[in-house]
Write a structure and sequence with these properties.
The structure is a single chain. By secondary structure, the chain is an alpha/beta fold. The protein has two domains: 124 residues, Rossmann fold (3-Layer(aba) Sandwich); 75 residues, Winged helix-like DNA-binding domain superfamily/Winged helix DNA-binding domain (Arc Repressor Mutant, subunit A). The protein has a five-stranded parallel sheet, with helices on both faces. It starts with a strand and ends in a 6-residue tail after the last helix.
Length: 213
């Protein structure tokens, strides 16, 4: 059973998300909150697997809340949600330690898929987000000498698909291997690059000239 907590200052959206999650087999919404003012106390009392975190909330914004969660509850997975695909919000969320990033206009079934994907070790995002990350870092100076960080040929291959914005399911189909195998490769990539999510892996791959976008 995947347990979820929702942070959003819009009551109707919280109620809609709660119904969506509770209706999904193998998933339950433990609680929903209108702000992050008591985020540490909230999470200590319910201890969810996943947090759906709105960015723009009164009192404390979602990005600041993510920083606190990451320090105090590093095992909790966090998917950011926002109305706007603003570059600053995207990159600040990634730096704060978010595991995924969705625009609020995302279809309900895609959000549910994203919750399952983040639990499986993925980093679900609205399709336009990885490309924006790439566009930003394409303008940054890359290392001239490639460094592989002891990545195997298969791990580099998987990493190259991540750079292209492919999900674990899509990579599995391309390489004709199971999602479980893809997930294991990604975990090893994270360990070797010292990163925590797909966005950080993509940034690291480009900046260190491991993969050319």
């Amino acid at each position: 059973m995947i347990s979820v907590v929702i942070y959003d200052d819009h009551r109707n959206r919280r109620e809609g998300l709660k119904l969506l999650i509770d209706f999904e087999p193998g998933m339950v919404c433990l609680a929903d909150f209108e702000n992050c003012i008591n985020v540490l106390e909230d999470l200590l009392s319910v201890k969810p697997d996943v947090v759906l975190m709105d960015i723009d909330m009164p009192g404390m914004n979602g990005i600041e809340a993510v920083k606190l969660i990451r320090i105090n509850f590093p095992e909790i997975l966090i998917i950011m949600q926002t109305v706007f695909d603003d570059d600053d919000k995207i990159f600040n969320s990634i730096r704060a330690g978010a595991n995924g990033y969705y625009l609020k206009k995302t279809e309900p079934e895609k959000l549910i898929e994203g919750i399952r994907e983040v639990v499986d070790g993925g980093a679900p995002m609205t399709a336009s987000i990885p490309r924006r990350v790439l566009n930003f870092f394409n303008g940054q100076p890359a290392r001239k000498t490639p460094v592989t960080f002891d990545l195997s040929e298969r791990e580099i291959e998987v990493l190259s698909w991540l750079v292209k914005g492919y999900s674990q399911k899509m990579i599995a189909a391309e390489l004709k291997i199971s999602r479980f195998t893809v997930n294991n490769h990604i975990k090893k990539i994270y360990e070797k690059l010292h990163v925590h999510n797909v966005s950080e892996a993509v940034v690291s791959a480009i900046n260190k000239n491991i993969i050319k976008p």
